[in-house]
Amino acid sequence: GQNIDQPTEMTATEGAIVQINCTYQTSGFNGLFWYQQHAGEAPTFLSYNVLDGLEEKGRFSSFLSRSKGYSYLLLKELQMKDSASYLCAVISNDYKLSFGAGTTVTVRA
Amino acid sequence: IAGITQAPTSQILAAGRRMTLRCTQDMRHNAMYWYRQDLGLGLRLIHYSNTAGTTGKGEVPDGYSVSRANTDDFPLTLASAVPSQTSVYFCASSESAGGRDTQYFGPGTRLTVL
């Protein structure tokens, strides 16, 4: 099976930076997604990485190192609305998404 | 508004009953998926369909069946519900089944089996 690990919870202050790490061991690798999920809502797409390096999208950036089986999602200038769960998901050789359990980020004033 | 709809929003069901969760998308996406989300376990794939007329088993298919008669609809059926099927169910779709296309999720169905 696929193994995708991310921290369960993180807390940060409004305006700060938070880095959510994700490590994976999967049957092959064809890309990595990050999704955001607010409580009681559907997951929504944040980013996709397939090559090593950093992808930046406004306040959110995602990094990938395929050789280390590692990714992180960086959230800058945190806002209260960023309080949510962040899901790391990997596409393996069968071209299906396998999800980590998610990291719940709480932003405090 | 384009997207994915699911019905019902929530349901309480007696064990042993049959239940169909409905999912409809209007984006003309080829691939569709059913996931369940349980606390501490994340999203797990139940069944998928790469294109209309085809279906496949995901990670946790037992106790569930699906059909894909057309592009838009992908219903999930629990033939005889059991309490372990209490979960939040999400339907998703993507333009193709290649895995690299973004999956778009419906609002979810919260199912409780007593």
Number of strands of chain B: 11
Oligomer: heterodimer
Mean pLDDT of chain B: 95
How many strands, which pairing sense, and closed or not: the largest β-sheet of chain A?
6 strands, mixed
Structural Rg of chain A: 13 Å
> What value does the average pLDDT of chain A take?
95
Overall body shape of chain B: globular
What is the distance, rounded to the nearest whole angstrom, between the alpha carbons of the first and last residues of chain B?
35 Å
Low-pLDDT stretches of chain A: none
Number of strands of chain A: 11
Unreliable stretches of chain B (pLDDT < 50, length at least 5) are none
Largest sheet of chain B: 7 strands, mixed
Tell me the Rg of chain B in angstroms.
13 Å
Distance between the termini of chain A: 40 Å
The coarse silhouette of chain A is globular
Please provide a written account of the structure:
The complex is a heterodimer of chains A (109) and B (114). Chain A is mainly β and 109 residues long. Chain A has no helices and eleven strands. In chain A, the strands form two sheets. In chain A, strands 2, 4, 5, 9, 10 and 11 form a six-stranded mixed β-sheet that branches. In chain A, strands 1-3-8-7-6 form a five-stranded antiparallel β-sheet, with no helix packed on it. Chain A is globular. The N and C termini of chain A lie far apart (40 Å). Chain B is globular, with a radius of gyration of 13 Å. Chain B has no helices and eleven strands. Chain B is an all-beta fold and 114 residues long. In chain B, the strands form two sheets. In chain B, strands 2, 4, 5, 6, 9, 10 and 11 form a seven-stranded mixed β-sheet that branches. In chain B, strands 1-3-8-7 form a four-stranded antiparallel β-sheet, with no helix packed on it. The chains are: A mainly beta (109), B mainly beta (114). At the A-B interface, strand 5, strand 9 and strand 10 of A face strand 5 and strand 10 of B.
